[in-house]
Amino acid sequence: MNQQFSLFLSRVVASLLAMVLALSAMGAFLVWVARSVDNEDIRRQGEIAGYALREIRTNLAHNQESSTFWDEAVERTATSGNEEWIDGNLGTWMHSFFGFDEAYVLDGQERPIYAFAEEQVKPAAFFELRRDLLKPYLQALRSKLAAAETPPEGSQEQSIGVTDYVYIAGRPAVVSVKPILSDSGELEQPLSSIRVHVAVQYLDGSIIDRVGQAHVLEDLKFVPSDQQDPRHVSISLSSDGGDVVVAFQWLPFRPGQRLLASLSPVLALVGSVLLVGTLIISSASYRRKLDRLRNDAHIRYLASHDPLTGLLNRSAYERAADEMIEQFSNRQQPDPLAFLFMDLDRFKQVNDILGHQVGDAVLVEFARRTSEILPANAPIYRVGGDEFAALIPNRTRREIEQLCGRLVESLAEPMDIDGRRAFVGVSIGVSMAPYDGTDRAELNRKADVALYHAKTAGRRRFSIFGTQMDDAIQNRAALETELREALRTKAPLSVVYQPKFAGHGGHMLGVEALVRWQHPDRGAISPAQFIPIAEEAGLIADLGLWVLETACRDAIAWPVEHLAVNVSPVQLRAAGFAETVLGTLEKIGFPPDRLELEITETDFAGTEEVGMLNIRTLNAAGIAIAIDDFGTGSSTFERLRNIDFDRIKIDRSFVTSITESEGDAEIVKAMISMAHAKGLKTTAEGVETAEQREILRAFGCDELQGYLLGKPMPPQQLSAILSGAETITP
Ligand code: C2E
Ligand code: CA
Ligand code: CA
Predict the structure, then answer these.
(1) For the chain, which domains are there?
(2) Residue 47, Cβ neighbours under 10 Å: how many?
């Protein structure tokens, strides 16, 4: 969850943040560019405004000169009676043509002879309202005239004059004072006779509007300095003396901002698209990465775990083993490391009889019980169907033995699963590093050898690897090859027969066929030793059939009620077994009702449908079924109720102890009476003493078999006995 959140932060939030930052930076840059452009443009607008406004002042003087620097004007203003001319050229005309707001004409003594103001001709005395204000300029002009100054070099003006900014009744204005001079220079003009023209242009009127329009300066106007509008920019013009300052302001044109404003919908769209795009891409990348993480985790989990039990699997086991061996081999004096291989006993039977669901539950329960006993630092690994492994560091051999003992004990307890009871158990093989090696493959092999040893020693036990086991294994491998060879020729094989006698009367009721293997080097090998090898090597069907055929041929003429032949559960589980048996009997002509097949009771738990069908088919043909070694397995009459059988063979262990412990005598007695109650016959195996025989007789046992009454013997010997040539002396 935490990882997911930080991933979300790193993928989505970080990408969005980066994009927002990038967009903001870009936005800031655009604003900065726009502002720089605007500032540059406003500076330029200021220059234009300053130029245009100053031009009003120069234009005023220049326009004024068009009428004041003129011979006719000198003449017309010299005499009276020219009022109309003066008005037409120096007053109203100037107003209407140049836009002058006020115009005055003064004589040589500065007495007003003409006045124009407020859009009309005024009495000349109107000038007196302006006299004080204009006095300095008139004086300045007189001094210039007295000094016979000429217009400055490069100036457009042809006559000298004085201009300046002034405030007239609070209104800003430009004033220009010019002498009325002869342009031809032919008229004599003494200083005291020079008349003066005064022009006034207000700077708050329509002329400013026109300047604004001409130069695209929006809302250009004069403002009193305390009324500045913050959105506007301003420019000030100061009088030559510096004491009059006229400020103008206008709404500046901001091209950058204008551009930004017009682009902003597009920019906003592009920004949104980029943000949404980033969101989509980054969240897709986040999801992809998350999926990948999840997948990786899932794949890692699957790669190292068994989905059914949730236990670590074989590859996890191999990795762990390698790592632990690695750590271990780096040390001078390594601590011991135990390799435990565990194999569920009878798991296949549980699976077959109780179903796979119960089988699965058994595995889970196995995992639970085992985990409770194993140390916390030693997880269990499921390395095969019903095979498990554990790696236990730092335990002595003694401690490992105790641990294995507890495991075996715990797994011997039946498991109740969904109301059904499963009897399993565990066989354990152990190898220990460094004593048994420091290589994974070798330690695995030795644990496997020890496991095999535990299983062949009767299951539900553990064994710790010892070198003699290796010998046993090699011995076994050799035996298998030799058995295969023996089966090919059958020459070293033979069948012996052990007679079975009636409990009452003592006559021979039947014989049991027992296979023998005469090994050229090893001598006689017990079937108890080679039958399991034949079963595992897939040779038992062949061997069993050969014994059956041989026994039938041998016994066909014998005057005994029945011939007993042992059948391995492996044979019984093979489809078509019953038919093979019946075919053999038919071939030889052996009557089926004289044949009895002995099946080991312990293996009935593993008898699946096929086995049941074989038994039923054999039974229906008249062949009797005997339960061999009765009483040794966990099964009872109760568990055998589904099987059609005719006889129980009470295991030798009961017979042996029948005289030693009263408890077993009671058990044997109960077995016999229960069998009789169910209509079954009874045989006691391994009768070795007369005392045993007497007790069994007293219990009503139907048939007795054992060394006391007759050992297994070759067919010729049995034939001789049956023909009366030889006798058995119990
Ligand atoms: P089993 O079916 O329980 O056979 C009886 C075994 O007990 C035989 O050992 C027999 O020799 C031995 N025995 C009989 N009476 C006495 C006695 O009074 N005292 C003692 N100590 N032992 C006695 P054997 O012949 O070594 O056979 C061992 C087992 O091998 C048999 O046990 C049977 O399970 C299996 N077997 C033998 N022949 C065959 C065969 O042809 N097919 C199959 N599938 N299994 C066979
Ligand atoms: Ca038997
Ligand atoms: Ca037996």
Answers:
(1) 56-248 (3.30.450.20), 314-465 (3.30.70.270), 492-723 (3.20.20.450)
(2) 11
